Structure prediction request, 124 residues.
Amino acid sequence: QVQLVESGGGLVQAGGSLRLSCAASGRTFSNYVMAWFRQAPGKEREFIAAISWRGDSSYYAVPVKGRFTISRDNAKNTVYLQMNSLKPEDTAVYYCAADLGGWGMTSKKSFAYWGQGTQVTVSS
Prediction:
């Protein structure tokens, strides 16, 4: 089992940037596909981005492609989400997720482990 703790959320103006971090503990971090999801009030949790075990491949949801970048540092057991050109519609709780498999998946059901989330609020 792996434990995940997100950090880095906050309030930012539209057009600004934030970097989220997710620290993992408990198991060998490099064994896990890592992903970010988000959930806005009244909406379903949606996939944002995922990165492969070694960090050499990633894929993104259409709404964030070109603005967000997922990366990982296996030596630090941490995955990151760099968010640029933020928009008010990016406001949500952002969750880190992990799974031993899950590569190529975008469904929340494909990821077994979750953090508690960090709030990102983008003001207009």
Summary: The chain has a mean pLDDT of 96. DSSP finds no helices and eleven strands in the chain. The first strand starts at residue 3 and ends at 7.
